[in-house]
Amino acid sequence: MGAAMAGHLLSKGYALTIFSRTRSKAEGLLQRGARWADSPAQVADASDVVFTMVGFPRDVSDVYLGEAGLIQQVRPGMVFVDMTTAPPSLAVTIAEALKARDAHFLDAPVSGGDVGARNASLSIMVGGEARIVEAVRPLFDAVGRTIVHQGGTGAGQHAKLCNQITIAGTMIGVCESLLYGYRAGLDLETMLQSIKGGAAACWTLDNLVPRILDRDFAPGFFVEHFMKDMGLALEESRRMGLVLPGLALVHQLYLAVQAHGHGRSGTHALMVALEELSNVRVNATPAKP
Amino acid sequence: MGAAMAGHLLSKGYALTIFSRTRSKAEGLLQRGARWADSPAQVADASDVVFTMVGFPRDVSDVYLGEAGLIQQVRPGMVFVDMTTAPPSLAVTIAEALKARDAHFLDAPVSGGDVGARNASLSIMVGGEARIVEAVRPLFDAVGRTIVHQGGTGAGQHAKLCNQITIAGTMIGVCESLLYGYRAGLDLETMLQSIKGGAAACWTLDNLVPRILDRDFAPGFFVEHFMKDMGLALEESRRMGLVLPGLALVHQLYLAVQAHGHGRSGTHALMVALEELSNVRVNATPAKP
């Protein structure tokens, strides 16, 4: 996703310096005029605004606060924007470290996946100071379509977690519905015709069910990243004394998805865990009950 | 819903004979020219095609097979259509009893609620013989918009249960997301702006969340009817050896919704059970964590 987003910034004429742990991912951008940096610190040294988008919370921590991290080359007035989905509390830690050096931080996780990154149609949920959000809004506009300031530091992360909690529910509803319809002997395409225009309508039904029926579990959005996000939401919920039984159940079932080797599959591989539970496999041809 | 649907048939010029346990519900139709019957059997006696729409499976059984039931006045070639959401196995029982008298049965539960009934925009999921479905299609067209033949007897019921299973998932995802966002101190309207256009998008988010935020738990669709439908789906699943942990959890939580006096509230009152679990109440003003 990072490469596609950086590409949009290049297209808008911004001078870009980039670092990636996997240099091959940067080649296309370097050919288009981006400059290579050997470390996050070198990116900071060459830039006024720095965007980060990595995998897991520890990666975010390393990129900002590690030995060759961004924090080593902070100049007053710089703006740092983390677009990774990461703990709200980590956003606060980084924002404070940067503030001590008179620099600014925004947490700005995104929704919309690979396709959204390529089409610059991402939803960007931003936490931090309003005037800083406004200052970098032209850059957000280059990579996303729905840019919403959610509140102070960490609020972007919280909004993203709301997004993921909703998806956990729609995903289990849709997968269980397919499993039921299949075992009941329905033709699933015909069943979907009846339900997808009404109160059961959801993005998952329209966008992921065709892949499930084709047994195409390529990501989309990685199971292991969704696991991370659900884990963050459960951890924050525990801290806030909040009981989320639906999310907790779906999180457990995704452990089963991983146990069956689907950590790098798309999130719709939840189907696999449900099939294993019932020892049933949903095929294109309906089963008679 | 039955009154609105019968009204559309009258508008299309069909002669209508009606029975309801609550005669007051029929008054409007009687004034518009419908004829009153004192029992289901009298309706059958006066009609070629009979529609039924009642509350619970026992009501369906009584209306068809009871002492003054439809079965008492069956003539060969008649068509009976049950639009109640009821057990697929009951559909089979009734279809067989009617077949023994050379009459036909369709199970044809609907989705779309009060509004769909008023606007004739219902989704009608039909089980039974294809030629019988075609024979009564003009009548379905008068009351619904999406009329899909799902397969043999009971297939309409199975498709409707797929619909309800999906809704169980979207409902818990949406309610938990609101609860999380509220406790995290987000402005919920602002949060919704970020998530409702993307992968979390669903009918529940668009149509029921505004009511939840207004704490307006008027139905829509009754909790006790949704409980019945989820119960049917779980019973069928058990029979088919199917594990649906998401549906089972949501069904349990709706028991809590009923325990808190919300059996005759709308399904979005699931929020109440989740609030009770965490001893939190979602108000319009955000809580700071």
Commentary on this structure:
The structure is a homodimer of 289-residue chains. Chain A is mostly helical. Helix content of chain A is 53%, strand content 11%. Chain A is built from 14 helices and eight strands. Chain A has helices at 2-11, 27-31, 40-46, 57-65, 88-99, 113-119, 130-143, 155-183, 188-195, 203-207, 209-213, 223-240, 245-259, 270-278; strands at 17-18, 35-36, 49-52, 79-82, 104-107, 110-111, 122-127, 144-151. In chain A, the strands form three sheets. Chain A has a three-stranded parallel beta sheet, with helices on both faces. In chain A, strands 6-7-8 form a three-stranded mixed beta sheet. In chain A, strand 4, helix 5 (88-99) and strand 5 form a beta-alpha-beta unit. In chain A, helix 8 (155-183) crosses helix 13 and helix 13 crosses helix 14. The longest helix of chain A has 29 residues, at 155-183. The radius of gyration of chain A is 21 Å and the shape is elongated. The mean pLDDT of chain A is 96. At the A-B interface, strand 8, helix 8, helix 9, helix 10 and helix 12 of A face strand 8, helix 8, helix 9, helix 10 and helix 12 of B.
